[in-house]
Amino acid sequence: MSEDRRAEGQSEQSPWDMASGAFIAWRSGDARAVDELVAAMTPVLWHVVRAYGHDRESAEDVIQATWVGFVRLHRTIEDPQAVASWLITSARRGAAAHARAARRATPVQDETLHAALPDTESAEALAVLDDEASRLWGAVASVDERCRKLLRVVAFMDRPDYQSISQDLGMPVGSIGPTRARCLAKVRTALMRGGER
Q1: 3-state secondary structure 29-77
Q2: What CA–CA distance (Å, rounded) separates 45 from 24?
Q3: Can you tell me the distance from the alpha carbon of 95 to that of 141, in angstroms, rounded to the nearest whole number?
Q4: Per residue in 132-155, pLDDT tens?
Q5: What is the pLDDT of residue 92?
Q6: DSSP strand E in the chain: where?
Q7: CA distances in angstroms from 45 to 72, 78, 140, 141, listed in the order given
Q8: Which single residue of 49, 78, 103, 149 has CA 20 to 30 Å from 194?
Q9: Angle at alpha carbon of residue 106, lines to 101 and 109, rounded to 5°
Q10: Distance CA 8, CA 17 (A)
Q11: How far apart are the C-alpha atoms of 44 and 64, rounded to whole Å?
Q12: What is the pLDDT of residues 69-101, one digit of tens each?
């Protein structure tokens, strides 16, 4: 509060009266009056915001946002007596919104998340599996066509029907097992060479 106002005996004013007086002076061009307004209302805003259970840092954020909003919107306040109410209402709304956001953003322990999430491979494990599959199919592509056909049929059947495979691939039933072993050996060799032909 300025010294001339204290001299006038107004030092015992309520924060509401001090706020409206400082607001009038600020709007009339006294730039220092906004400091008086801040000094009068900030302790009140602290009580309002802390009542929502905010810690010091959160309360500071809400109060700062309240003052920024006030500076931006002060021209919309027509009645100087409404300044304190405007600030308190704005601080309450900001504190409530901040509390809602904090509840939504509450960190959860990994153990709790693990129980709630479906069992899936990590991104790293999936990348390794994709790389292995790519290298494997690259090695399969490097062998002759007869081996590729046989390995594809055998790879995707739980219990291959050798009679059907014999008819589909035109090879005797007795040679399917040994041919498959030779084809797998070719794929293994191709994998060790990096899938090159």
Answers
A1: CCCCHHHHHHHHHHHHHHHHHHCCCCCHHHHHHHHHHHHHHHHHHHHHC
A2: 20
A3: 64
A4: 888 888 888 888 888 888 888 777
A5: 93
A6: none
A7: 18, 21, 72, 72
A8: 149
A9: 165
A10: 14
A11: 13
A12: 999 998 898 898 989 999 999 999 999 998 888
Q: Tokens for 31? A: 């730039």
146 and 166 Cβ atoms separated by less than 8 Å: no
Q: Which two structure tokens, joined as six digits, stand for 143?
A: 């062998």
Residue bearing tokens 């006030």: 70
Average pLDDT, rounded, for the chain: 82
Q: Tokens 């509401």 belong to which residue?
A: 16
Which tokens is 140 given?
Answer: 């399969």
| Amino acid identity, position 61 | D
Contact 13, 21 (CB under 8 A): yes
Provide the 8-state DSSP code for 81: G
* 63 vs 170: CA distance, rounded Å: 83
Give the Cα separation of 17 and 14 in Å (integer). Answer: 5
What type of residue sits at position 178? P
Q: Which of 170, 171, 180 lies closest to 143, judged by CA?
A: 180
- The helix (run of H) or strand (run of E) holding residue 162 is helix 162-169
Which pair of structure tokens corresponds to residue 59?
A: 């309360």
| pLDDT tens profile 18-58 | 889 999 999 999 989 999 999 999 999 999 999 888 889 99
